[in-house]
Amino acid sequence: MRRVLAAVLVLALLGVGALLLWQRAPLRSGGPVAGNGQVERGRYLAQAGDCIACHTVPGEAIFSGNRPMPTPFGTLYSPNITPDDETGIGKWTADEFYQMMHTGRGRDGKLLYPAMPFASYTKVTRADSDAIFAYLRSVPPVRRNSRGHDLRFPYNNRALLIGWRTLYFQEGEYQPDPGKSAEWNRGAYLVQGLGHCAMCHTPINALGGSSPARAFQGGLIPMQHWYAPSLTSNRESGLGEWSEQDIADLLQAGISSRATVYGPMAEVTYNSLQYMNDADARAMAVYLKSLPNTDPPDSAPALAPVRADTEQMYSDGKRLYGEHCANCHGAEGQGKPPHYPPLAGNRSIGMVSAVNPIRMVLNGGYPPGTRRNPMPYGMPPFAQFMTDAEIAAIVTYIRTAWGNPGAPVDVREVGALRAATVE
Amino acid sequence: MPPQFALAVPLLAAAVAPNALAQRSPTEAVPDTIEARVQACIGCHGAQGQGVENVYFPRLAGKPAGYLYNQLVAFRDGRRKYVPMNYLLAYLPDPYLSRMAAYFAALNPPYPGGAGAGDKAPPPALVEEGRRLASEGVPAARVPPCMACHGTALNGREPGIPGLLGLRADYVSAQLGAWRYGVRTALAPDCMQFVASSLTEHQVEAVSAFLAAQPVPPKLRPAPADQKALPLECGSQQGRIQ
What we know:
Radius of gyration of chain B: 18 Å
Number of helices of chain B: 12
Strand content of chain B: under 5%
Largest sheet of chain B: none
Largest sheet of chain A: 3 strands, antiparallel
Helix content of chain B: 40-55%
Number of strands of chain B: 0
Oligomer: heterodimer
Structural class of chain B: mainly alpha
């Protein structure tokens, strides 16, 4: 009854417009009083923050948690964040939610494990935090106890997090740079804050920390066997040379005339970035494009010594490429963009890490189905048809042909990735 | 017809929607067809979805669209576990999976060389035991016969029940094992989970041998959907609203 009274009171304040919205979308039990506009904005911001990726098991009720997240330290389970009073965030207040986002401490004061990207979410404004909270309170409550984490000693001791936080966590909302445009600042806010891009695109060290000094310099994603390229190196995915439209296409559609997203980035595009409106996608592009190129002046890759077996691999690779790949990717690696990505000049092929091109040949892949590209074209997996040596030969060829700057690939690296991702 | 499957039919007839993202090199256009989009599937499942030599890469062609759709969703969401398929489908939306399912369901290439070509002939007594299980079930364990749901001709039934012919023994027994151990699950209530976990290993072997030994009549197609009650409640045949 108190809830109903409160709702009536606020609706009186908000006026007839809000009343009409309320009639179309009645408050669910346990929901706080929130204008419908705030809930919709919160939904959009929750998409920008990709909350669903960790807090929902695919096919199960949204935000009901318990999705396992394997880490080098053990398995974490995401909590239920539906508005259920007993097992979710039904009894939380907007203040408590903001404090959690801002400080990385739970409602009970416990330090959160940094799988929750609070080092990024701390930059989120109070108004945006409140909107996300209002949206989370609007989804159907689910009664489901959150499973405890399954971490190895000593990582199961939360006191260790104090040290981690000293090294890698700086609390504070995003402060706009007055020397930059509003668009740049909006992009920086989304990339550094809700987008939590640094979680993957900054090297992760042995303590699971992302060093701010090496922000966006790329890194191998633990447990997932994918390499998140540097966003600051023009040799990797540094975007200095890309047009803003290509960047926005890649983020929103998952494909572009320059490259395509696969693996963990496909998940981010599918759950989150495809929903960004044109203005926000462009703002992110403007900011990403402005990141400094961190390549040292003389950064041509050290050329591997040419050995007889490298030459043999190259010529085997060239033959196999002609038989299996050229039909889609073109005899000169030019592709048929945006659906069949170019390989010549495609930096994810020639990066120092060969993990991604090897995985593409082993596992194939579909880009995510998005609003702008609802039926993507797929690349077949070749693991079932090719030996490790054949795949090493093809990847060696595409990494070194057409002026691509990559180094040859060792057959053992293919074998290790096959074991990790196919069998 | 359940709403989920009602969707698939107009989709099948509709032309492929124009792509939202413009192609920048018109001379190198990629065909705007479902066929071009499922090139990732045909290496393992055959150019016409007819299956390949590998026992574990089954035929897709001609299976009920609803059955194929349920499998695609189950692989995507991890309810049916096979890492290469789980990975490929992870970020594809329901309407696209429905189109893929309708595409392969409409194909009808000949069965290559008959079922189980190249497999060693199973002992006749085992096949006979399998025939009894398929036609009579195991009344003591309240397991209905295969034919009660999959049809006396074992041709399946729209929208969600697959035919059982043209599969090899190792594949059938691997699927029953996967159901029993939770590696493969279907929409609740999962009738096949009950069936698979009620059979003994020997019974699984017998029924697999019998099914694989049956010749596949030309032009085998699933029976049309009807309102006939099933002996067990099956989520797959009820469909669900997406």
